[in-house]
Every structure is written in C-alpha cells, then in structure tokens.
Amino acid sequence: MVQSNTFPVSRRHVLQASAIGAAAVVVTEGTLPANAAQAATAASATAGPTALGASPTDLGPGATAPVRPFRLRDVTLGDGLLQEKRDRMKNYLRQFDERRFLVLFNNQAGRPNPPGVPVPGGWEDGGLLSGHWAGHFMTALAQSYADHGEPIFKSKLDWMVDELAACQAAITARMGDGGGGEDPEEPPIDRVPGRFGTGLRLNGPSRAQYGTLPQEAISQLTDFTIATWVNLASTQSWSRLFDFGQNTTINMFLTPRAGVAGNVPRFAITVSGSGGEQRIDGTAALPTNQWVHLAVTLTQNTGTLYVNGQRAGRNSNMTLSPADLGNPGNRWIGRSQYGDPYLDATVDEFHIFDRALTEQEVRSLLDSASGSTGGGSIAWYRFEEEDGSTIRDASPNGRDGGIVATQSGGSALWIPTHPGYLGAIPEDAVLRLGPPRWAVYGSNAATNTWAPWYTQHKIMRGLLDAYYHTDNQTALDMVVKMASWAHLALTVGDKNHPAYTGPITRDNLNYMWDLYIAGETGGANEVFPEIYALTGDAKHLTTAKFFDNRESLFDACVENRDILVTTPQTNPGRRRPDRLHANSHVPQFVGYLRVYEHSGDPEYFQAAKNFFGMVVPHRMYGNGGTGGNYPGSNNNIELFQNRGNIANSIAQGGAETCTTYNLIKLARNLFFHEHNPAYMDYYERGLLNQILGSRADNTNVNNPQVTYFQPLTPGATRSYGNLGTCCGGTGVENHTKYQETIYFKSADGRTLWVNLYAASTLTWAEKGFTITQETNYPRADHTTLTVNGSGPLDIKLRVPGWVQKGFFVTINGATQNVTPKPGSYLTLSRTWTPGDTIEIRMPFSIRIERAPDRPDTQSIFWGPVLMQILGNPGVGNYRELSLFRHLKRDGDYSHSAITHASTTAAGDLLFTTHGFTLRPYYIGDTQAASSYFRRVEPTIVFGSIDTGVPNHKRNDSLPNYDIPVSGVPSPGTDGPTFLDLVWDQAPFANHGQFVSTVTETAEAFVRAGTFTEAEKDLIVSYAAQSNKELEPASTWDVEVQARAQCTGANAYLSVNARNADKVPLTIELITPYGSRTVPGVAPGKAAYQAFNTRSASVSAGTAIVKITGMVDGTPVTAQIEAPYDATSC
C-alpha cells in the first residue's frame, strides 16, 4: 500500500470505518422492495478500503452498491445526438490552451509564467473563485481520454498534473519561512465628501483604483435602471463609470466621455464586440469638477440615457439586455474591459434597479439619495463607510462590493498555515471562512470569501478523475496531501491568526456551512470517502462528515421536513437565508451518499433520498431544472422556489444548469441503492432536455458554449458561453460523460440494466459480453440491442414512465408476450448466444404536463422531449392554445391538435399547432421560444360541438403554497377543468365509455355546486350526440417499409408505401433526407422513393408516411412510422 504523507494528528476523535462491500438484491418489476434501504445498508457493511495498486480501482459513486456503474472506458458512444454534442465539446478541449489555468496557481506558488499566456477570464481572473475551472478541465480531459483513449487528452492532463504538483510543493516548502495565516491589513481608503453624505474617490490622490460588484448585482437583468452621481476630475476619454461583461466581445458600459466628436457620454451593450454595440449617446460633453447625475434605463426595446434628470439620448431598437451577457465575470465601477484609463472621479449613490424608472423617478434622485424610489431594488451603494475596501449594499439584499486598491510596492509571498495546500488563491481565503474571522461572501479579495471549499472540491475531483481514468499516480499523491491539509484546516483551523482561540468545534462547522455562497462546498464531502477507501486512513472519512450541514438542514432532511424555503419567522438557522441557494445544497447530498456508501450510516442515505423528493417533482420545471424568482421573493434566481411553485416561479433566468448537473448525479447515485425507475425517469428528463440543451450546436475552440441559466419564460432565449463560470465548468464535464448511465450492472454480475436508449457499445470484459445498441433515440422511438457473448444473463430494460402507447419487444424477431407497466423495468432472463438481437419500440406520443399550482400553465412533450413553441409572444404574455376540440376518442393529440410538420436535416422532428412551430428543447441556439403555454378552453366542446356550458374548474384549493407568494391567494380556488378531468381518462374503448366518463364527471361537478342539473343534462346530451365527431380517424390499410441500402459508396434510404385499401390515397413520404408526395395512389399501387443521403452511412431512424383519403366527403389523414436500421457503405 502507498501511504499518504503523515501530518500532525488533530484533536478530533478518529472514527473507525466500517468495512464496505456489496450484496446482490432482487428487484421486482415496477416496484421497490420495502426494505431497500435496509438491504443497501447491510450491503454496505461487509468490506474494507481498497489498497492502492497498479490498476486504479474506481471508488466513485455506486462502487459499493447493489447496482453499480461501468467504467467510462467500457462504454463508447455511437452516431447520434449525444455523440454530436460530445464531439463539439471534445474539439474545444483539444484546442483550448491548458497553460492558462496554471497562471494563477503559479502566482500563488511564486513560480514564473510563460510570457503572453492570459488567465482564462470570467471568474478565473484572480478573484476569490479562481482555480475551480482547473479541476473541471482536468475531469473533462480525463473523461475524454476514457472515451476513446485519444492521446492528446492524456498528454494535456499529465502536463497539468505535473505543473500543479510543482505548485503544491512550492507552497508547502514556504512553511519553513515562519508566520502564516495573518489577517491582511485593510488598505487605507478614505471616503470623501459626496453628493449626499460621502462618496468614493477613484484614482487621483486616492488609493482606490476601481470597484467590483457581486454577480447578483447585474446577472440576468432584462429591464433595468442604473443611476449614479459622478464628479469628473479630468477630461480623459473612454474611462468607464461602469463596465459589466466577460471581455471585449461581451459587455455593457457607460463612459462619461466617449472619444468621439463632442466627447458625449455613451452607453453601449454588445455580445459581438465593438462593431455590434447597441448605443445611446448623449448630446453634450459633461463638465469636470462638478456633480452630474447619470442614469440609463431599459424597458423592452427602448433604452434611455438621462443627464441631470433630463433625457439626453434614446434608442428604440435595443434587442440586448444584461441577461444576454450570460454571467459577466467582470463587474466593475471605474474600470474598462479594454485598456482604457481608470476613472478619475468621485462616485456617489450608485443604484441598480430591476425595472426602468420613469422620468419623474429619475428626477427625484436629484433631490435626495433615494428620491421617490426607496433605493436600488437590486443594489444600492452609498459609499458611507468610514474607510476600508468594502462597499456596503444599502438595499436589503446584502450584495456588498469591494474596492481594488493600487499597490504601494511588491509584497512577499504568503506563508501557508498547514502543509499540502493547493489553490489559485491564498490559503487564507479558505481559512478565513471559519473562526475567528467568519468571512462572508463578497467582492473584497482581502476580507471576503467566495465558496473556497467549492474550489477545493473541484481541484480534488479533477485529480481523482485523473487517477481513475489515466492511472496518474502523481494525481493520487497530490489529492491525498490536499485531503490531509483539509483535515487540518477543519480541525486545527486558522491557528496563526492573532485572534485564534483554539480548534474548530462542531458548532463552528455548523455556523460555517449555514451561510449563503461563502459556505457553498460544491460537494466537497464526496471526495473524502473515496480517499479514505483508497488509503485506509479513517481521518478522511471523518473529514467528509465535517461538511455535514447540521445547523438545520441535515436533520430536517433525515426527518423529511421541507425547510428549503422558510419565512423569517420560521428560519431555523443563525445565518442561512430564508431561501436556500439551490446549487449550494444539492451537491451536499451527493456527498452524503458517498459517506453512506463508505460508512454504512443509514441517516446519510435517508437525508439524500428525502431531499431529492423535496425537489423532484415539487420544484421541478419541465426541462428538469429548478430555482427561480416569484412575486415577493428576493430577486435571486439561483435560489429554490417555495414547494409546489412552478407556474409562479418560471423565471426569466432561472433553472441554473449547474443545479441540474448535480440533481441528475443525485438521482443516479440513489438508483444504485434503491432501484426506483422514477430516478431514471428524472435522469432522462434532465439529460435529454436541460443538459443537452445547455450546449450550443456550433463549434467554438475559445469558449465552451454552454448555458448558465435556461430561461423558461415565454419567448425567452438562451445565452451560450461561460468560460470561467461554475456552469461553464460543469458544462465541460456534462458533455464528456454521456455514456456513464446507459448501462449498469448488479454487484454479482448476473444482471445488466439498460437505463437509457442511446447509440453505444458496452464491453463487459469480465462477463465476456459485448452489447451494441443501434438507435437514433430520442429522434426515433426504437432501438436494437445486439448481444455478443454466451451464457445466462438477466437484461433489465427500462420502460419509461411517459410511455402511453405500449412497449414492444422482440428477440431474434420473435415478439415477446409482455405488457410492462410504464415506469418499471422489464427483465429478459435468457441464456444468450452471439448475435442475439433485442428490438424495442416505445411509440412516442404528444402528452401535456400541467403545472401543479396552476393547471392551465402547461408544457408539451414528444416522448421524453420537451417541445418548445418558437417565437416571442411579447413580454409577459403566454401563447394561448385551445386543443380539446381536436381530440378524438383515443385522446391522441398528435392526430390533429399538435401534428408533425417536418424533419430537420439532423433528424429532429418539428410539430405545428395553431400556426406555431414546435421543436425539441435540446436544440442549442438562441432563437426565442416558449417552454410553457396557457391552455384556454372557455366552453365544453366535443369536437366541433360546443355545448355553450362554461368549462369550469374543479376547486382543488390551488395554489396551496407552504410559503406565501405576493399577490397570489393560497390556498386558492384553482384546479383542473371539467374537460381536463374527462380527457385524463383517455383513451376510451368505445363511445359508451366516453359518455359514462362525461356523466360521472358532470355529476361530481353538480355535487360540488359547480354545475346545475340542467347544465349536466345538456353536457351529457351533447356528449351522447358526439359519436361521429369523436370517432378516431380511419386507419388506412397501407403497407409501409423503409430500408437503408448502399449503391456503391453512397447510402440511400428507400421508402415504399403500398395502398392495400379500397380507395385512392394521397401518400406523403417524409425522411430526414427529403420528402415526396404522391397524390391519387390507386388500390394495389405504391408510392416509392429512394432518397440520396449523400453520405457513406445512415444512422438508424424513422421515416414518416402520411396517408390522406376521403371519408364521407371529408379528408382524413393517418400517419405511419417506418423504422429503418443503420447501414455503412
């Protein structure tokens, strides 16, 4: 065994680790054993930590569970949507210069940097979150190497590990210089007389160079006002009053003097550099040495610049807003994204609002600090501090900023407190989170902190992945040293600080983690149990438990008490906000499962399971995301919404991608222990919608092109980029590990779980099996598994919970007589022989999901895929759709309510309704689209028969929120409509069954006092008369076949549709490679076309054949899907 370095023993009791192992469990179809948690606990108590060896053992999620993952290298992706997204990200990883990540680490280590190599940018700019992207990048490189063994990924990764090892050694070597851990001296930055009270003097005689604001001060604003006083001390051009952005390409700024004719003030916003700026220019140069008030407002497409309360410029063609900047890493007062001079001026009363002030409100700011506005609703910086580098936020939101001071001279390198530290920020920025300083989140690099353990986790995770996937022993040695440092940091603590009073206590730890953002750990607790298992050193398991958030949340989750959002009166924590930050807490529970897997302590499993149930489905949007604002909340879209709040929390910029990254990890890890198919249903939803949709469908070698937020409001657009942000980092991981959940195995090797349908090949060397899956899912609804290997094996096929039209299985062409329940697994127990094939078809259907708190707010799905309605209905408006009049007795929306329109060149199906186009959510571009619509069904209709009776709602007391929502009565009187309840029972076997359902539902409404007896009788009478109206369209007798074949080196897709009916038909053949309509196909004749794919290969897919004929003088259209297999020429 390779031993870790030994450091001083902490005063904490060393916990004895239980041995961990695995036992097989039997899972019945569609059900969960009542004793699953107990069985999993027992399974986790029979084996010990694994010694280090020449061949790395992956001790990641599920390594000790009854169901376990395969290694990434055991599964390769085939052609399809997942591969397309993955390849774009791998191309970025190949090209991006990894040396950029080392610049900030070298700065902390005192090592030289190669000339001309810039820092990555965004949050990787030397600020308090610097270093996390190096960890993400290492994980992405390791995963990419595991995918196909491409040498470039390993060579880049090996170089990073070696360089980081040198940094770690250099930092620890400085311990011999004495000292360490001193509290940095606050720079003497005095305030000066301002317009009201005191102001901040930038440059000139002041040491204050520029101000920095927290990300929440600007990110995701649409309508806004920024207003401030400025007293210019010089006539320099192009200096910035403020400049918020990512770089010189993506930014928005206000300069008091543009270097153009007249030196007028200018506001500009761009996402394509200076050539794409949308500008508002003033009319005259601003004076120097006197106070001037400037304000910029934006509402919808109109931006206005005010000077001293008077309109000085207007642009009515503004299409950009701060939300289009993504998540700007640089948020500066007095500094430019370019190399322009720093602002030489005094600034006072800097307001940021989330709306456009009226002209009268802007003028009121001339008379007093807040005028008639009450102060900035997002942030308000008054500069009333006596001195120091902190800018206090006078709004209730606590968004303090910081001041960057000029340096008086070179400073000596800091001295570490404990050995083994590695980071791109000083060790002090981590230690100050705890006693005696209790640093809080903010922009002051000298005194604040920003999720320091989050950054430590990402670096450690990257090193562990380098070890697991590339057998890099140096990475393992480094991460063990980091873990030992962490143990000291969380036990001995900040021992060299003058105010140090002794070791860190459990109560101290609770106080640390019960803190917004600064206490965000990023799931740090998930790496230490693995390090314990790798080394046998029990202190690392102890360290993992140090991260327990036991101030309030851990115990509440064990007891299944939902306190993710509280009122001020019920808030149980000393420092926690009323609304918890979603991505701060989801990864904690991923870590709790790791503690459970390596300790067997069941309360960690119970906490994770119950927490997941609080989020899914009660806070889950259609795309799988969570988090957003709602009326009366505090303008922070990264926080959880109150339980059950979907319709009233659909935020302009909610659903942070990072959170879904962690939620699907949590669902995956829970499934290893409790094989509940609902976990996989959620995993698929999150993966195929928010995660796939988070990657732009373009190639970019300078930027990962992923989303931070994914807005769900009507007509919202997505912004792609995010180099240096948290979601950019998890983004490079997301798209390089798609294969990790397609297949699982039982611990005893007797069972293979097929969880996802994706083109892929599994090589199960230990069993001698290779499984090849050919499919174009989710663009198609069928897949073929080819088994190569001999012997008995149970293969469990996931039957998705959304299946409505059956789940059909054949083995070697023989239909299996099975009727599995949606939301279950179907077991095929068989002794397999090489070449056996399993064909699966699960016909997709259009289905509607209603928001639980407002049922008329709905989303549309095609199988597992959320379908967005293209276009922008206007600010605050929803598309309104009426669909019930299109339904037939089978309840199938796809027949006429929402119909297939066309297929993109990539094979994505497009639908249409009410003249609007619907497309899959996973398509990654910036088109405006709506994920939700409003259902408008004013009267009870049966086809074209309108009863005239209002389509009343059943009073389900909706919404019924646990936390008040401003302006929304709760409990309310909302609920599903009469027609909702009737059609929820579809399909109807015959018209009598339909009329019976209408009758029963109407009688229930009468009993509730919603309908009168007369209205009920009228409804039932019309329902009885609607037989012809509701009769499903005839199924035309047409024989359809689609086949991919080769002519020379070129692949063709041929589609043949023979009319076996008795009447002429119009037949339309639709494929990804073209379409053809043949009118008047006589009985016995066929429509045929061989479509040239202009390629040497064809992926498996589905051709669509639409058949139209006349019934009683009315055209009736039916649709048949014809699957075809892949072929290569």
From TrEMBL:
Stretches assigned to the Non-reducing end beta-L-arabinofuranosidase-like GH127 middle domain: 751-843
Taxonomy, superkingdom: Bacteria
Pfam families hit by this protein: Beta-AFase-like_GH127_cat (PF07944), Glyco_hydro127M (PF20736), Laminin_G_3 (PF13385)
Residues in coiled coil: none
InterPro entries reported for this sequence: 6-hairpin_glycosidase_sf (IPR008928), Beta-AFase-like_GH127_cat (IPR012878), Beta-AFase-like_GH127_middle (IPR049046), ConA-like_dom_sf (IPR013320), TAT_signal (IPR006311)
Every Non-reducing end beta-L-arabinofuranosidase-like GH127 catalytic domain range: 74-169, 419-740
Name this polypeptide is given: Glycosylase
Organism, as annotated: Micromonospora deserti
A single BP term in Gene Ontology: carbohydrate metabolic process
